[in-house]
């Protein structure tokens, strides 16, 4: 018997806490994932995080207890897109140049 596929979508505008914008199971989860893939949205697979976020209502902010985790995920996505804080003074490029 296969596991039930679940998905949760979050939005973050940089001004307020991330909010739940979509949740779904099975076919709805597959649609959320397909839409994310089609629009270039990064997907993070974490069964435990998904289970917890499934408990939230649409439009509800992510609880403060998850801020650090979600912030790390958002920071990682920025880095995947080649966006780094200015105070890094192109540290990432210096690292790449040494490699």
Automatic annotation (TrEMBL):
InterPro entries: T3SS_substrate_exporter, T3SS_substrate_exporter_C. Pfam families: Bac_export_2 (PF01312). Keywords: Bacterial flagellum protein export, Cell projection, Cilium, Flagellum, Protein transport, Transport. It comes from the Bacteria. The keyword Transport applies. PANTHER family: FLAGELLAR BIOSYNTHETIC PROTEIN FLHB. Required for formation of the rod structure in the basal body of the flagellar apparatus. Together with FliI and FliH, may constitute the export apparatus of flagellin. Belongs to the type III secretion exporter family. This is Flagellar biosynthetic protein FlhB. It comes from Shewanella japonica.
